[in-house]
Specification:
D-Maltodextrin-Binding Protein, domain 2, alpha+beta, Dipeptide-binding Protein, domain 3, 622 residues, 3 domains, 21% strand
Length: 622
């Protein structure tokens, strides 16, 4: 999830948290070399900060942790489109800067010792730390940074081409300084986007093909390195004992586990049973039914397994059934709107989810960025130029997904659905099949899933489509590799997808919604949105000069997307649901916007007590 950089301007001052700026004079005028950058306001942490507030600086290092992943993997190279990357592989690579988990969007130097920006935001420069090292001991150089940028932009995952589209070049401007130039000015996000870039070794890749998958551990510089790989089954990481950045303020109290192993399971149900049997230590739960009933066991009853709901202030984004509008059947928004009336969220939430979820009504839910009520005067000023080119409901109605009484009877909803379908040229024939009036072809499409767990949600919806609207709908569940390949190539009708959002939406919105991404394999514009108005609104969001303008423009974009009916919104929850064997301790202060599991630690006393329990259990089974 990407966030926006705030520039140094008269109206919006970029505050460097009591750091006295050191101006430099260049072609673009004054520039400032600083330890961090913040969005629309103050940095929380000044230049002399010792650690983030949500860590324990005295957390002990040590212990082994086992985690789980579903599916499989076939690559340790996470920067290209090909292959399925291994879980946790990002821990092996350091980036120029790192964000904090208790600010909407602030970044601080990691590989970069300082960050320099001019007043017009036309470039950003990073001075590298002299002590920065790869795992083989070689120094991280300006040449490595330039190589990484060029490789990602020309050979990397298509995402990077969009992400760095406005970055024209990277060049050496000093012994340890690299500057990135932009083809636009006053884009507040670009300096922070560049700062999120991992840095790869030019020497390492000089003898390897960057565009090929590999199961050879790629040379990195992060807090962990790969030490064991069982292809498709498990991967183990070991904490780098001489990690060059271990004592930097951004890392103090983090990366406490000696070893982290991910075990892969083909099925989520099997994975849950394995957890209860003690085969791994920690899991985040996303299935309400399992959270309500799936953990019942002697281990839970005796307190050996802990369940917690940890509140957060993260935007929850949009999860929903996503229509592939490249398919002719979904190109009429009235059809997409009609199909939403056949999804009974209230029944689903009551029957399947134990009432655990709230209905999602915005692409930016659980944040101030979410549209609500009718457009404000500021939003209307943004939207009025598009009147006649966007649905009139944008101006006259608050978006609210269709509702039911939760009993399973939805006659009123179906009446609306049939009306919309008829307007779009579809009617039920004498055999009870919904057909196109002009061609006689039946309406048929497929829900593509990667997890059998979600079938229990989709199948009741398919029942409504088939038996109440006459649509020939079906469900297909495939393995993770096939699923990813089909998504990358837009080979699907309907999928369940999540559009994650941050508190500072920006350049990533291009990959979600812009027309030029609709046919780019691997892009996140899975819905195939091609709307010039959306294109323009995305650019307005990116160019927002202050926080209030960002809020107004994001809400305007939200309204247009919602009334485009590209998805059927599903649900969200405002807490992390986690379960773990009682061997961990965690900081007293919780990060607002992050679970921050990397700040937890294995508590030696708890671990010893738990080991005794497991030994007794093992003996009792013999």
């Amino acid at each position: 999830m990407t966030r926006i950089f705030t520039a140094i301007m008269a109206a919006v001052v970029l505050v460097f948290a009591a750091l006295l700026p050191v101006p430099g004079i260049g072609a673009q005028g004054a520039s400032w070399e600083v330890h961090g950058l913040a969005l629309h306001g103050d940095l929380k942490y000044g230049p002399d900060f010792r650690h983030f507030d949500y860590v324990n600086p005295d957390a002990p290092k040590g212990g082994n942790v086992r985690l789980n992943a579903i599916g499989t993997f076939d690559s340790l190279h996470p920067f290209i489109l090909r292959g399925v990357k291994a879980a946790g592989i990002g821990m092996t690579f350091d980036t120029l800067t790192v964000g904090s988990g208790d600010e909407p969007f602030s970044v601080y130097g990691l590989i970069a010792q300082t960050i320099e920006v001019p007043q017009d935001n036309s470039w950003v420069a990073f001075k590298l730390r002299p002590e920065a090292r790869f795992h083989d001991g070689s120094p991280i150089t300006v040449e490595d940074v330039i190589f990484t940028f060029e490789a990602l932009k020309t050979k990397g995952h298509p995402f990077y081409r969009t992400y760095y589209a406005a970055v024209t070049k990277a060049e050496r401007v000093g012994p340890r300084k690299v500057r990135f130039s932009f083809n636009v000015k006053d884009n507040r996000e670009l300096p922070l986007i560049v700062g999120q870039m991992p840095v790869l070794s030019k020497a390492y890749w000089s003898t390897r093909d960057f565009e090929r998958t590999t199961l050879e551990p790629v040379l990195g510089s992060g807090p962990y390195r790969v030490v064991a790989v069982d292809p498709g089954r498990s991967i183990t990481y070991e904490r780098v004992r001489d990690y060059w950045a271990a004592n930097l303020p951004v890392n103090v109290g983090r990366h406490n586990f000696d070893r982290i192993r991910y075990d892969y399971y083909r099925d989520a149900t099997v994975a849950l049973e394995a957890f209860k049997a003690g085969q791994y230590d920690f899991r985040a739960e996303f299935v309400a039914r399992d959270w309500a009933t799936g953990y019942q066991s002697p281990a839970l009853q005796n307190g050996w397994i802990k369940k917690e709901e940890i509140p957060h202030q993260q935007p929850t984004g949009m999860q929903g059934f996503v229509f592939n509008t490249r398919r002719p059947v979904f190109q009429d928004p009235r059809v997409r709107q009609a199909l939403a009336y056949a999804f009974d969220f209230e029944w689903t939430n009551r029957t399947l989810f134990y009432g655990a979820y709230a209905r999602t009504k915005s692409y930016f839910s659980n944040s101030e960025l979410a549209s609500r009520g009718l457009p404000s005067p500021a939003e209307l000023k943004i939207l009025e130029p598009y009147r006649g080119r966007i649905p009139e409901e944008v101006f006259t109605q608050e978006y609210d997904p269709p509702r039911t009484n939760g009993t399973g009877f939805m006659r009123e909803n179906l009446r609306v659905a049939f009306k919309l379908l008829k307007e779009a040229g579809w009617e039920v024939n004498d055999r009870g099949v919904l057909v196109n009036v002009r061609t006689g072809e039946p309406m048929e499409f497929e829900f593509l899933l990667v997890s059998p767990t979600f079938e229990r949600v989709v199948l009741p919806y398919v029942y409504n489509l088939k038996n109440r609207l006459g649509i020939q709908a079906r469900v297909r569940t495939v393995d993770s590799t096939q699923y990813q390949n089909r998504i990358d190539n837009f080979d699907f009708d309907v999928i369940v997808e999540t559009f994650g959002q941050s508190l500072s939406p920006g350049n990533e919105q291009r990959d979600y919604w812009k027309s030029d991404r609709a046919d780019e394999p691997g892009s996140q514009n899975v819905a195939g949105v091609r709307d010039p108005v959306v294109d323009e609104l995305v650019e307005l969001v990116i160019a927002a000069e202050d926080r209030q303008t960002l809020i107004d423009r994001t809400r305007a974009l939200d309204r247009v997307l919602l009334w485009g009916h590209y998805v059927i919104p599903q649900w969200h929850i405002k807490s992390f649901r986690v379960a773990y064997w009682d061997k961990f301790s965690r900081p007293a202060v919780q990060a607002k916007y992050d679970l921050a599991f990397d700040a937890w630690w294995v508590d030696p006393v708890k671990e010893a007590r738990l080991a005794e329990v497991k030994t007794l259990l093992s003996r009792s089974k013999k």
